[in-house]
Amino acid sequence: MYVYDMKQRSMQEPTFLILTALAAGPQHGYGIITDAEGISGGVTRLQTGTLYMALDRLRSAGLVEPDREEVADGRLRRYYRLTDEGATLLGAETERRRASAAVAAQRLRTRLAGGTA
Amino acid sequence: MSAGGTGQTTGQGGDRPARDPAGTAALERRYRRLLRCYPPSHREFHREEMLGVLLAAARPGQRTPGLRGTVNLAACGLAIRVRRIPGWLAADAGQDALAVVSLIAPAVVVILIALAPAPMNVTAAARVPFWTLPPFPPSTLVMTAWLAVVLLGLTGGRAAAVVIAFISVTIAWLAWLALSVQLLGPGPWRLGPGPGGLVQFLGPAGGIPIVLASLAACSLAFSPGPRRGLAIAGWWRACLTIAALSAGFGFPFIVQRVHPAALALTGSLAFRLLGILAIVLAIAVTRGRSPVGRRVAGLVAAGLVPSLAVLLADVAPPGVTLLVDLLVAVLVWPMAIVSWLGRVGPAARAG
Lengths: 117, 351
Hints:
The complex is a heterodimer of chains A (117) and B (351). Chain A is of the alpha+beta class. Chain A has helices at residues 2-8, 13-23, 29-39, 48-60, 84-116; strands at 27-28, 64-72, 75-82. Chain B has helices at residues 21-34, 40-57, 67-90, 92-115, 138-154, 158-184, 197-206, 210-221, 226-233, 235-249, 251-258, 262-285, 291-300, 305-309, 318-344, 346-350. The longest helix of chain B has 27 residues, at 158-184. Chain B is globular and about 70 Å long. Chains A and B meet through β1, α3, α4 and β3 of A and α2 and α3 of B.
């Protein structure tokens, strides 16, 4: 149901960052936050509540799933991984964003060419 | 490079400066309190790892959650709770709960109309000779209609029961809306504190417990119906629940009948407390530990709103409490419809 919704609408930025972070391999919560910040060039730092609300939704939709659990410094770390369905959706979203970016770049080039002509 | 991936350098506080243990303990305690905003199932699964992330992300020496983090946790916890309501209602247990409500709520409405003092009730009948036709005030008609709703629901005439209940509820909504406008409306709309016009015309029809009646009508329309409810609850459990709810919600009426002067002493506080007690009793007798019992209690709890809305009476004009009741009476419909669509719609077929 969520996958259906996401195909109808563009993916939200936190969701895109989380799925992208997990595309490299399983990560735990804090790892996803720091990685997502790096992916966004420091623009987006996910809040913990936002991260786990998204993970809860993505897990229900079958896009991510728990990978394993570890205990570090007496704290539970649960690692999450991207499912095949999640990877497919991320691929589709990436293509969509790439196509939009290509159109934007093309128009900017045209504008620049018109301005300098 | 992913910082927190498998075998990466940044752990959950692993490379950070040593923290003040007392400060960390205080911070953890406060985060644990904040995590109560989340639903129990979410807490059970995510609490410990969320605490790990929150503490890892904390600044050295931080003893209290920041404003942004607090708002984020509270908002996300609430959002998850709200998001789960349709699933909670659409589950089989949600439909079973609505079926039980469709059995008990109309019966409670009949009893409350019967308990209510004049002018809702028949008062003049005793003063006329028995061989003449008794007066037939609209309140009697309303009570008869709801009695028919109960009987039709139990004897397989659910469609007719839905129509009657819906007509009664619609007229009651109009009556309450007209009264609210009369009390709150500007200029020519405001007719003064006494009843008049449309209110006077619709008044007796509006003399029903509007939230419970609305809940009864929508649960009749959007659930497997009272027979299914009876199969789930059983006769004795259904009767006990009806008695408990009637006693709770009708407590002021009972007091007024037994000892009219006592109502001034017990007041609205007793109304509210007894309403809550009624819900507790309903939980106890309707398998309160089962998913169906919890949902029944949750749905019937909507009937407490008029009791709680009394709290507004001290700080807001009287029409506001009517509007609050009216709003809740209308909002129970989309809840029931969501539950129904969840059972018969694509989501149910998929899952």
